[in-house]
Design a protein that fits this description.
heterodimer, A: alpha+beta, Mth169, Chain: A, 3-stranded antiparallel beta sheet, B: alpha/beta, Rossmann fold, two-stranded antiparallel ribbon, ATP binding (chain B), glutamine amidotransferase (chain B), PRibForGlyAmidine_synth_PurQ (chain B), Class_I_gatase-like (chain B), Phosphoribosylformylglycinamidine synthase subunit PurQ (chain B)
Amino acid sequence: MKARVTVTLKNGVLDPQGKAIEGALKSLGVEGIGGVRQGKVFDIELDTADKSQAEASLKAACEKLLANTVIENYRIEIA
Amino acid sequence: MKSAVIVFPGSNREGDVVRALRMAGSDIQKVWHAETELPKGTDLVVLPGGFSYGDYLRCGAIAGRATVMDAVRAHAARGGLVLGICNGFQILCESGLLPGILMRNANLRFICHRQFLKVERNDTPFTKAYAQGQAIDVCVAHGEGNYTADEETLKRLEGEGLVAFRYSDAHGHVTADANRNGSMNSIAGIYSEKLNVLGMMPHPENLVEDLVGGTDGRGLFESLVSFAKAA
């Protein structure tokens, strides 16, 4: 089983990297960019075929390590 | 005093902090991150600067969950002293021993320069050798030192006097110019609730020798040693 975890900054947390990327896109002449927030994507292989077990493992992975919930949100998608 | 300096893969400032502690009169043991216990009789645990685990994922995130950190948490819970410098501060935040997080510097640049800090209070085990409000001349070297916390945490830190140091000018004035990484409230270091854990971005261990241009960092290590002797 495969899963994708997406970690993004919470609303209101300043993202200087996203701002810099936004500025770079504008300077490249890419039109229509309103704002950029940078995040992380983790593609994870799971040993189990049990979806609820996979969900529990992924939630533990996010809470314990992948996301710092002080500033980040996470989203789990199981393929 | 007995100090345990924890070494993670990618730590690189342990040599300097060992030297600073030895000059102040401490016994020192280096402890590898995979250990499950601290040496018997450890008074002070130091998490040195560097780039533990290559700053992968988030600075300090992986080191903050290393085996030895359970022993460090237990030491702190017993009231034992813990000092985290630079990457060590990031590790303390990631391990839950201190609140908040160190984000990328607001100007996106790695900063490396001499830096004055205002000593907020001198009644803690870390700062007795300084005067309250004194500006100490140390240095900073980091890319992720932008202290960030939610409003409630910030209010609590300020309300309970848990801010240890702020970025200041040479006279101890906390100015916007002195806050080069964009930290909230110019915070350079914070204490735990019981004042036994200190995390700070600047490097006091760099300024302990006249040869390198200053000795203002000595006071922190001397404070710790005299506190442990008195205890």
